[in-house]
Amino acid sequence: MVSNPAFRAVTLPDALPLDSGEVLENVSIAYETYGELADDKGNAILLCHALTGDQFVASEHPVTGKPGWWERMVGPGLPIDTNRYHVICANVIGSCMGSSGPAAHASDGKPYAMRFPVITIRDMVRGLVGLLDHLGIAQLHAVVGGSMGGMQALSLAANFPDRAARVLAIATTARHSAQNIAFHEVGRQAIMADPNWADGDYYASGSTPDSGLAVARMAAHITYLSEAGLTDKFGRRLQDRQSKSFGFDADFQVESYLRYQGSGFTRRFDANSYLYITRAMDYFDLAEECSDGKGSGLLADAFAGTPARFCLVSFDSDWLYPTSESRHVVHALNAAGAPVSFVELSAPYGHDSFLLESPELDRVVKGFIE
Amino acid sequence: MTAAPNNALRPDLAVIFDHIEPGSRALDVGCGDGILMAALRDQKQVDARGIEINGASVERCVAQGLSVVQGDADHDLTFYPDGAFDYAILSQTLQTAARPDRIMQELLRVGRRAFVSFPNFAYWRMRWALMSKGQMPVTRHLPVTWYETENIHHVTVKDFELLANDLGVAIANRWFFTQEQEIGEMGANWRAEYALFEVGRG
């Protein structure tokens, strides 16, 4: 974790009731906007970011200096056209780019660390709705998200059905599978096994659990790619050498790449945030969440009577949230009578395809939003 | 967005268009690029939904603001509730289904009425090609060889009527077409290149 640049943020006036039963006070939501808000406030699009994303969707990341994470999709004349739409992207609670999370300071002036309450996807959405209330936006033109952002989009549609006219959920799922949870648990155990983690109380020590967080990122990163994509990009090629070292250095290009991904990640992300957000994703089961112990737990019931239009997009090489999970949502929306579109796009890059060059995705996004 | 004028529709689709009540709900199974759906939405304020197997076609539908789900009639109809639609439409798709009989039942489960069109394999040119050459016919309307064709259940006007009878399905209307023109009922099983039926629950 590096120093805190000044983030644009709002402190919500009301405490946030959480699914755990706890209440989060003085909730800070950091956000960025792009494009002008119309006088009637009817042209707002909320973009929801993924696990390790942030509010810098179409502007330079203040820590890494890299371009926004969806700059190819969001901007003037692009599929999500900021000449027409007012795009809002907020850092979710639990994260570490200015919104309330384990690295933020609690009322005693010290970082929450593990005192931060365990949150859910719906809690993140409650924070986002708090931001919309602050901005005076009663109904979004659209809510859009990929991966964990898609979970938020679906949760917002189910829990706050009047807040979005269109819901676009890309490469996502309505529930975390055993395999999804399993990969996340590997990551969490890697972080917690790092001596620097110190039960999460590492902020004052100057030694952060970078090794554990890097391993977590490496394991997760594999799930964002496809076997074909890895083979195509790296194969068995060696890294800067002619022959194997007969040691444990990064002989293979793929090892070098993963190490680079892991170490780069530790410079911009908080290990405790990674624990909290992966937990929220693992807890995500929209059918269960919306039954509140009363209903049948059918996903269709979560969307009953929804006035929104939906579009789901999956990628054929995505094995993290495969097409079958999108279809599961589509079938529930069919059963609920909601207008829904669904397309499986072909792309070789696995789950990350939604962030990469895809003219087909561009056309679907642009067409659905208009 | 410009609506496809009614007269730009294929003749069977134009007939379907004419017989759908304004403001109703319709499910177009195998909706292709959404030409009929767009016309129904734009000119008749129909709440139209679609199912289409081809991803590129779905993409073009979504780009027009249509609600279309990528899927196939054999599997995806089951996820719609009973009576969700006033009309279910299956144009030129019945003969590609794994179980046309089950599709028929599903159409009339999700829709009050159904429009079903299909190429008539008993069209005289078919009969003649089969008889004279002894080979599976390749015609203007069914232009693909037997090993490449998606049409796995060839059906005739007579077969369809017998199926409707077996399923207890009521035939409300029938139209026949040859060379993109509507023709009369007389000798339809010989003369019609393709047929359109409007059916209801028996």
Automatic annotation (TrEMBL), chain A:
GO terms for biological process, alphabetical: homoserine metabolic process; methionine biosynthetic process
Swiss-Prot/TrEMBL catalytic activity: L-homoserine + acetyl-CoA = O-acetyl-L-homoserine + CoA
Keywords assigned: Acyltransferase, Amino-acid biosynthesis, Cytoplasm, Methionine biosynthesis, Transferase
EC number: 2.3.1.31
EC class: transferase
SUPFAM superfamilies in alphabetical order: alpha/beta-Hydrolases (SSF53474)
Pathway assignment: Amino-acid biosynthesis; L-methionine biosynthesis via de novo pathway; O-acetyl-L-homoserine from L-homoserine: step 1/1
Annotated ranges, domain AB hydrolase-1: 43-355
Binding site for substrate: 217, 352
Residues at the catalytic site: 147, 318, 351
Gene Ontology, cellular component aspect: cytoplasm
The organism's place on the tree of life at top rank: Bacteria
Compartment annotation: Cytoplasm
InterPro entries noted in UniProt: AB_hydrolase_1 (IPR000073), AB_hydrolase_fold (IPR029058), HAT_MetX-like (IPR008220)
Entry-linked Pfam families: Abhydrolase_1 (PF00561)
GO MF, any single term: homoserine O-acetyltransferase activity
Annotated function: Transfers an acetyl group from acetyl-CoA to L-homoserine, forming acetyl-L-homoserine.
Subunit structure comment from the entry: Homodimer.
Family statement drawn from the similarity comment of this UniProt entry: Belongs to the AB hydrolase superfamily. MetX family.
Protein's name in the database: Homoserine O-acetyltransferase
Organism from which the protein derives: Pontixanthobacter rizhaonensis
Protein's gene: metXA
From TrEMBL, chain B:
InterPro entries documented for this protein: Methionine_synth_MetW, SAM-dependent_MTases_sf
Pfam families: MetW
Ranges in a coiled coil: none
Protein name: Methionine biosynthesis protein MetW
Source organism: Pontixanthobacter rizhaonensis
